[in-house]
Amino acid sequence: INNQTFDGHSSFLLVRLFRFFHGLRNNCCECNRVEVPEAKAAMDRFKTEVASELGVNLKEGYNGDLTSKEAGSIGGEMVRRMIKKQEEQMK
User: What pTM was computed for the model?
Assistant: First the structure.
């Protein structure tokens, strides 16, 4: 994806996702805070769905035993899908 693909909304989304997944890997409550409570359940379902599709064993609660590669693959795929969806909505 080239730099022209990203707008302000996509950049904001990427920052929020980075903070979310930083918390996933490091079990950091402050970083893993979701601003909209209703969104937490949806993000958890989305994360579980992506992990399952990638063959990563994601448990409820603490997942500090994931490798960086596993955690990154989940987060990366989520970001790719959300950017794709945002781009489709902007057309």
Answer: 0.61
